[in-house]
Amino acid sequence: VLCNLKPAKMRGVESNGMVLCGSREDPREVEPIAPPAGSQPGDKVFVESYETGLPDEVLNPKKKVWEKLSVDLKTSEAGLAQWQGNNLLTDKGQVVCTAVKNAPIR
Questions:
Q1: pLDDT 10s per residue in the chain (106 long)?
Q2: What whole-number distance in Å separates Cα of residue 60 and Cα of residue 65?
Q3: C-alpha distances out from residue 25 to 89, 103, 106, Å
Q4: Is 42 helix (H, G, I), strand (E, B) or coil?
């Protein structure tokens, strides 16, 4: 769950996060991306080759940071979650999407 988005009301309930899924339209497929075994809520997910730095506490919706970065999220042919071709990782291993391969992550 992506959790540093500004809270928003969805169907009358305040949402503080977003579930990321590998998704394609034809054929219609959706699968949540999965952290490696042993992961815990709050584990930091980072992009390979971008391990340093601190995440924004809350993304500023006026700057459209998420909209700019999310277009480069996808699953590889091997089912690895990636941003600009770099793997998404935690300190426990690779973030994956095993069924929906070579597709955008939304």
A1: 677 777 888 889 998 788 999 999 988 999 999 999 999 988 999 999 988 888 888 888 888 888 898 999 999 999 999 999 999 999 999 999 999 999 999 9
A2: 7
A3: 26, 10, 12
A4: coil
The C-alpha R_g of the chain, in whole angstroms, comes to: 14
Q: Which amino acid is at 57?
A: E
CB atoms within 10 A of CB 61: 12
Q: Which amino acid is at 86?
A: N
Q: Which residue do the tokens 């009301």 mark?
A: 9
DSSP string, the chain: -B--SPPEEETTEEE--B--EEEETTTTEEEE-BPPTT--TTPPPEETT--SS---SS--GGGTHHHHHHTTEEE-TTSBEEETTEEEEETTEE-B-SSS-S-BB-
Q: Which two tokens stand for residue 68?
A: 């700019």
63 backbone dihedrals φ, ψ, rounded to 5°: -85, -10
